Each structure stands twice: as structure tokens, then as C-alpha cells.
Amino acid sequence: MKLLAFVLMLLPTVAFSGAVRLKDLVDFDGVRGNDLVGYGLVVGLNGTGDGLRNSPFTEEIMSNILERLGVNVNGEDFRPKNVAAVLVTATLPPFSRVGSQIDVTVSAIGDSKSLLGGTLVMTPLNAADGQIYAVAQGTVLAGGAVAEGEAASVTRGVPTSGVIPSGARVEREIDFQLSGLTQLRLALREPDFTTAGRIEAAINREFNRPVAIMRDSGTVELSIAETRAASTAHAIGRIENILIEPESKARVVVDQRSGTIVMGQDVRISRVAVSQGNLTLRVEEAPIAVQPNPFAEGQTVVVPRTVAGLEEEEGTGLAEIPEATTLSEVVAGLNALGVSPRDMIDILKTIKAAGALHAEFVVR
Fold it and tell me: CA–CA separation, 92 vs 119, rounded Å?
């Protein structure tokens, strides 16, 4: 009896296959980050900064910074090689408070060769409304290396871009009151009517009353008052870990550059026959120099000689894929042809053109 009670107590927490937490499927209305950008200066570079003749904006901002520090450089001819102009980008997380720190990314915009060892001078970061929300400063951690000599150079990684962990301090907060919401919208990252319906049903089961309603394939609306939660944050905390089994479209994604093929489990192929072979055309030039006979008047003539050939590799035969084939059967059938991943991409595109591949085909 005690064992039965223990099993019944565990049943509500058992996750079925493919179950995903609600917070991994949706975005909550208003709970979002904000992009920040700023224009600054990196100093302390080992001769890898901007060439000021090619980047006059670097000299301009450097003069402005020195003047703010009380150094008058008007009329002076200074062209240091240890300074680079950069763009600083960051994302202000939701509910960030004054004094908290965020990471920033620093990228050169001039002809600087490397930002290794540089230090970003205090740079204000603006949002889309033009207001300053953070100030960045610190040592740049670049992820590359450069080595060069008189006649050659080698570069590994991207030394003209780097990051500053916790390099910006928040100076202004986003004016958003989550507790003032009476309706909370849940936006699905992959809109689907079936998934939205399951989310609605799961939330209503959690509260034992109709508190959520599906508005469309990408939106589920939650009534905060009907949840009887202490606040909007309490309501979100109660529903964000609900397990949902998402539904997805049958989709085939291929990357022609790397030869990668990804197929969903719902991909189906109608009855179709596939044959694959390669055709090679080879043309070679082998000119011959013809010399005149001894004591004969004449000139050396180059006679063209061309060797052309057309080779067709033996085909892999005709393979038939049965109707309503599953993913594993599709992979097994294509592997039976002995084709490479790149040839397999061409085969899948041809099957799609023939109307036998019942899935969305995405080429990257």
C-alpha cells in the first residue's frame, strides 16, 4: 500500500518523451532584453592600432577624450599606432538594476590589425531611444593571434574583435512594471496551433480553472486575476516549468557548404525510385613542338594536341523507396545507394521537385 502511494505521488512529475518546459517554448510579454551600442576607443595596443591617415575618425575621438581630460591637442601633430576606434555592443537583460554588470563585445571599425592587450576607455552605451543605459570600460579579451614578418603573415581567429566580461555597469533601468499587467501574453517561438492548444490545456489544468485562452497559433493569453496568484511574477513562476510536448512541422534542413542534412521524425516520402551516377568530362592540352629538318629553312612550330574524354562512373543502380517511409527507412535507403552527403542533398532536392518529399525543404 505504501509503495502504491509512493508511485501515485511520482506520477504527476513523470515526463513523457519529447516533453519540454514551457519557458523553453515561449517568450513572456515584456520579459525581454534591450540592445545597446556605443562608439569608443581602445588604447594600449602594441603598434596594431588604426592608421590615422586612413581612419580620421579615430583621431577625432581621441582629441575629444583628451580635451575632456584637460589636455589641449589643437594644432598638434600626433599619430600614435596604439589606438583603435571600436563599436561596443551589449544586451541589457530584463529587470537589470542600477549597478549590475553586463558583458560587452568590442569590434574594430578602422584598419586596426589586432585588439590584443588593449583597454577600452569609458564608453557610454545607448539604446534605440538615444538614452544612455550603461557605461563600458575594461581590458579587451581578443580571441585571435597575428604573426608577421617581412614577406609573410599569418592570422588565427579574429583578433579585431573581443569581449569584456562584466565590462559594463548599468546606469539606468528600463521603466517596465511587470506587476501592473492584468493580462500576460505567451508568444510561441515556433507558432503552431497544436502546441498552443496543449499549452492552454496544461495551464488550465495547473490552476483547475479556465485562466488561459489560445488567441492564435503563436499567442496564448493568461488572465492574471483569474490565477489568484499573489503577483504576476508568482503566476509566471508557477507555469514556466509545466511540461509540454511541442508539435513541429515536417522539415528537412540542408547546409550545402558543410554537407550537413537534418531531417525531422515526421518526414515522409511517397513511393519513388532513385538512381545516382557521376559524369566526368576531361580535357587536356598537350602541345607538340615541331622542328624543321637540318639545313632546311623554316621555323619551329607548336602544333596543338588536345585529348578529350567523357567518363561516366558506374551508377549505383535503381533503388526504390516505398510509400510512407519513415525517417530511419529514408536514411537507410539513401545510405544503400552509397552516395556522399553532398550527393544526398541533390537527391533530396530532386525528390522534393518530383513531389514525393512531404516536408518543408530548407537550404542554407
Answer: 22
Q: Which residues of 205-221 are buried (b: 16+ CB within 10 A; e: fewer)?
A: eebeeebbebeeebbbb
User: Would you list the DSSP string of 297-329?
Assistant: ----EEEP-EEEEEEEPPP--EEEEPTTB-HHH
Phi and psi (nearest 5°) for 233? -65, -40
pLDDT at residue 78 tops 50? yes
HEC string of 107-119 equals EECCCCCCCCCCE
In the three-class reduction of DSSP (H, G, I as helix; E, B as strand; rest coil), residue 77 is classed as: coil
Query: Which string of DSSP letters, residue by residue, matches 60-113?
Result: HHHHHHHHHTT---TT-----SSEEEEEEEEEE-TT--TT-EEEEEEEE-SS-S
149 vs 151: CA distance, rounded Å: 6
Across 9-72, the runs of DSSP E, i.e. the strands, are 20-21, 26-28, 34-43
Q: Are 145 and 159 in contact (CB under 8 A)?
A: yes
Phi-psi region of 351 (alpha: psi -120 to 50; beta: other; left: phi over 0): alpha
Residues in the chain, total: 364
Q: What is the DSSP letter of 94?
A: T
Among 164, 42, 40, which residue's Cα sits nearest to residue 112?
A: 42
Give strand pairing partners of 261.
Answer: 254
**Range from 59-63, 93-97, 150-154, 179-183 carrying the lowest mean pLDDT:** 150-154
225-238 pLDDT, tens digit each = 888 888 888 999 99
Q: Please tell me the distance from the alpha carbon of residue 133 to that of residue 131, in angstroms, as a whole number.
A: 6
Q: What is the pLDDT of residues 278-335, one digit of tens each?
A: 545 455 656 777 677 776 666 777 777 656 554 555 555 555 556 556 656 666 666 7
Question: Three cell numbers at 2?
Answer: 505504501
What letter represents residue 278's amino acid? N
